[in-house]
């Protein structure tokens, strides 16, 4: 376990909430992709191809699980400074992927339904392998992002399994919500949902970036490990409710280095400015075709 692990493990509720929200958001994105593909096949009277969609989804889920356990449990078997370097690198990779996906979804959401349906139309002509590959990559992209994000997110929980449990619960809720939306039992403004959860992910990613930098400083990969921006440890109790929330969800430390604090602030300012800047055309939905029942839930 990395030596930077929090002295006081965040509360169970804190671990469940943060990871559960991540699971809900990422799971909902992946579930909507699957729903669009499945709805297209049903409308096109090609239900025979559904088995290849589900097989592609299953393979993607298995791949994501392998990535998560290899990185997470691989780092837990390494001690000392090597573990810090591995955890730091994994955290920085997670930040890059999450940032890229958040900014990409900002502009791509309005076209994703049409692109998926066009891709499925071509895949049906090409054959089962193409259908399987389309669903695999569509779901796997979201899954890899989630796996890497959770590796960095859960580093300060002293080996606790609660973040993983929270993630799985969030994914289960996402699946239930998606099924309810498909059958018209639930209406949800997905544009608003994804906007605010994306902001939450950016703040979480800033904390993971800060954690990764401190880990690399501890591993002597980056300089400045002894130069503190400020030190609030004398008046800060990590065992309080706010201490566990700040540490468990946002990777907050009361004694960040200058490089940590600077990177955290610059990242938040730059990424939030890019994400919140006005767009030329309004993003109205993740799926806009009325043939997909979810479209009626996305009106602003």
Tell me about this structure.
The chain has 300 residues and is mostly helical. Helix content is 70%, strand content 0%. It is built from eight helices and no strands. Helix 6 (190-218) packs antiparallel against helix 8 (258-276). The termini are far apart. Residues 1-8 and 282-300 have low confidence and may be disordered.
Tags for this model:
single chain; 300 residues; mainly alpha; 8 helices; 70% helix; 0% strand; elongated; disordered N terminus; disordered C terminus
Strand content: under 5%
DSSP summary: helix tally: 8
Regions with pLDDT < 50 over 5+ consecutive residues?
1-8, 282-300
By DSSP, the count of extended strands is 0
Percent range for helical residues?
over 70%
Structural class: mainly alpha
The pLDDT mean sits at 78
Over all CA atoms, what is the radius of gyration?
Answer: 20 Å
The H/E string reads HHHHHHHH
Euclidean distance between termini CA atoms: 45 Å
Biggest sheet details: none
Indicate the overall shape.
elongated
Describe the secondary structure blueprint for this structure.
Layout lengths: L11 H32 L6 H27 L3 H47 L1 H26 L8 H21 L7 H29 L22 H10 L7 H19 L24
Helix pairs in contact: 1-3, 1-4, 1-5, 1-7, 2-4, 3-4, 3-6, 6-8
